[in-house]
């Protein structure tokens, strides 16, 4: 495919729209100015190229933001063979930040890989070609490798020919042929090692891994699974234990962050299979993987919370340190916090562990914009509500995204026992009004919660001034009551 990296490209080979700012398009008017590096990396990881460009237009300085292993958005696009996004990023840099283009192309991750190295490793020749030709001084793969201090894949071919005697196309063709031959050899070795893992020949496996260990650990099958994935799913602990020890001893623990086509790491597999022993072993290799999300936004920690593995959850949150910039992306999988999940699964022990070590979860919201206390109150989960009101009383004063407070959401749920818990632990919440100026009495009538209206009016001692409070529309409690009774009368009349 002949793609021009000077213009933004679309999904079709013959469509090459010119570079333009998404701000000029009304369809992008809803882009949130608050996007940050975490959201940019999440978009790149999920292959949402248009979102990547939209975020970069808002904040170009994020172009060099890296994930836990140092991969930038260009690394991710090159690794995945996303030629459209690669060319769009190059066009973006040429158009607005040409002086940064060389630096971005030479950025390396923790393994010393540039975006070009990742394209070559994964056999994306067209992507590699565009990355080379984008460099104004025509640096070869070996030139980049030298600057990056990379000592792996490309350097294996240096002795075969002189880089200076070939033009770019010839060098790329030579690399392609040599790499294909070398890859076949690695694949044969990898297949033998995978078989050794499956039959439990641990010594054979470790012995075969000593040569080309990095390449073999990074090699994947057609599902994207590595040797570590195989060891995590095979019977017995022997292969996995020895493999993890080998990785730790040889500084190769970054292989633990590799995901398959679904984005699942080996730790995802072990946690999903509820194999706690293997999960603990994998956490030892790379603790940060407990927060690594797959393409569905699910992390191993999320799975541990879902299945109620309290010991594993405790190990995960105590052994792994989460960088602050990642918290928004990692702690809010699937548009809800881990606290919401623990509440949903009715696992009070897990909730206690999470809140002890990750107290910031108390302020997180789900897809409805509810914080954990509001969610538990609306569902009628008395134990969880009592726990949060007792240990995090200030959360009762934190408003939800819709402008209401947890007591209002509790009324909406219609559970009198929850309202009693609020009155016992945080009675001041009964004087809170929502964004429309409505108090608890007015909200109870508004949503036809007769049992709660009865409790509020009979069990509690309200003065006249409270029941006569007007909301933003000028309606008092009595007005809401009249409307409620009128609607009840009309519905009964219709039924008759």
UniProtKB/TrEMBL annotation:
ANK repeats lie at residues 111-137, 296-317. The keyword Transferase does not apply. The keyword Transmembrane applies. The chain crosses the membrane at residues 477-495. Gene3D superfamilies: Ankyrin repeat-containing domain. This is Uncharacterized protein. It comes from Saponaria officinalis. SMART domains: ANK (SM00248). InterPro entries: Ankyrin_rpt, Ankyrin_rpt-contain_sf. Residues 1-35 are annotated as: Disordered. It comes from the Eukaryota. Keywords: ANK repeat, Membrane, Transmembrane, Transmembrane helix. Residues 13-35 have a biased composition (Basic and acidic residues). Pfam families: Ank_2.
